[in-house]
Amino acid sequence: MPFDSATPTLSLPRWRNLSADEGECHLSLVLEGKPLARVRLQRGETLQVGLEEVDRERVPQALWAVCYWLFARDPGIARLTWQLDQPPHSALSSGLLVSATKSGEYLCERSLFWQLPQPWLGQPFEGVYPQQMQISDGKRHPRRAPKPRGEVYRRFDARLGAWISLRTLEIDQDLERFNRWQNNPRVLNFWQEGGSLEQHRDYLGKLQADPHNLTLIGCFDDQPFAYFEAYWAKEDRIAPFYAVDDYDRGIHMLVGEEQHRGPHKVASWLSALVHYLFLDDPRTQRVVAEPRADNGKMIGYMHDQCFHCEKEFDFPHKRAALMILGRERFFEDCKLV
Q1: Which residue, of 38, 96, 263, 281, is most buried by count of CB atoms within 10 Å of its CB?
Q2: 290 in active site
Q3: Which residues contact 284 (CB under 8 A, 6 or more apart)?
Q4: What does the DSSP 8-state code read for residue 147?
Q5: Phi and psi for 25 in degrees, rounded to 5?
Q6: Are 284 and 275 in contact (CB under 8 A)?
Q7: Domains of the chain
Q8: What's the rounded mean pLDDT across residues 62-87?
Q9: How far apart are CA 97 and CA 109, in angstroms?
Q10: Which of 290, 312, 328, 332 is catalytic?
């Protein structure tokens, strides 16, 4: 659903402010207090966008910002059709725009837009890590890139009016919080990882030293509320249970703060987590999860975010549901705003 047009302001990643004057047939954007672009809008089979005025020093940024505004403004828009006098070389090379059949027309596809790695990622995207196969614990898999540190993802969720961000877990900073969350009876029922501070320090230390696991803290408006584990499925215990690919990622999820439970919050953080993993390596074609088969609420939330249940199977410690979300389906049915 479009956000309230009476308060036409969106915040961009890295804490910048984008505001608009929008009517039925026009959109004017102001970024950081300076006019950025004015476009005319014509609604039809697709939304037609014509560039009328632009800050010549910020043309690529202006094209991106208009696309961002219109897609975030209305999640129902799947495609924008731009009319431009000059070929937008930078936008074409990045994939922001693609050439249409008619001269002077260019398309922006929602499913492509949300695959652009910047500005969502916390660190500049430097391309894919080179592939070299290796064997560890009897499993053949690609060598993994060094794990990041600090904030890895940030996006403003227009539906919540809040920032959703992901940062790496720091043991000294997050140990007490992690211990409190794991000993919560609700969490303990599904994770079964309750214990002392020292037990949890050891648990997190082993994950930190494991190249196939990345431990993350989820934040709303920079306040920690959740713990996530993102793992490379090829090296994980899940690998024997399905036809795993070299770059599949898996997730474990824990919401620790009670005020951040509920379907609207899950929709925000689950889509952000999956979005980050697909952006982190464009070779990742699937994100998988293995919640307990009797965790109907979580499985329902995952269905809402386009996961499907491939099957149920038995781990030594639980009966699990194999939940899978493919890259194509995620971006084609994209619920990001």
Answers
A1: 96
A2: yes
A3: 247, 248, 249, 277, 278, 327
A4: P
A5: -120, 10
A6: no
A7: 9-113 (3.40.630), 133-332 (3.40.630.30)
A8: 93
A9: 8
A10: 290
d(CA 247, CA 270): 19
Q: pTM to 2 decimals?
A: 0.93
Q: Are 221 and 195 in contact (CB under 8 A)?
A: no
β-pairing, 34-43 vs 26-31, is antiparallel
- What is the overall mean pLDDT for the chain? 92
**Tokens, residue 256:** 């620790």
Name the token pair of 122: 């916390």
Q: Does residue 201 contact residue 175 with C-beta atoms inside 8 Å?
A: yes
- 23-71 pLDDT per residue, tens: 889 999 998 889 999 999 998 889 999 999 999 999 999 999 999 999 9
pLDDT at 4: 36
For residue 16, what pLDDT band results from cuts at 50, 70 and 90? low
* Short-list 127, 88, 93, 90, CA closest to 104: 88
Instruction: Provide the 10 A C-beta neighbour count for residue 185.
Output: 7
Sheet of 16-22: strand order equals 9-12, 16-22, 26-31, 34-43, 47-54, 79-83, 105-109, 98-99
172 to 17, 59, 128, 177: CA distances (angstroms): 33, 44, 31, 10
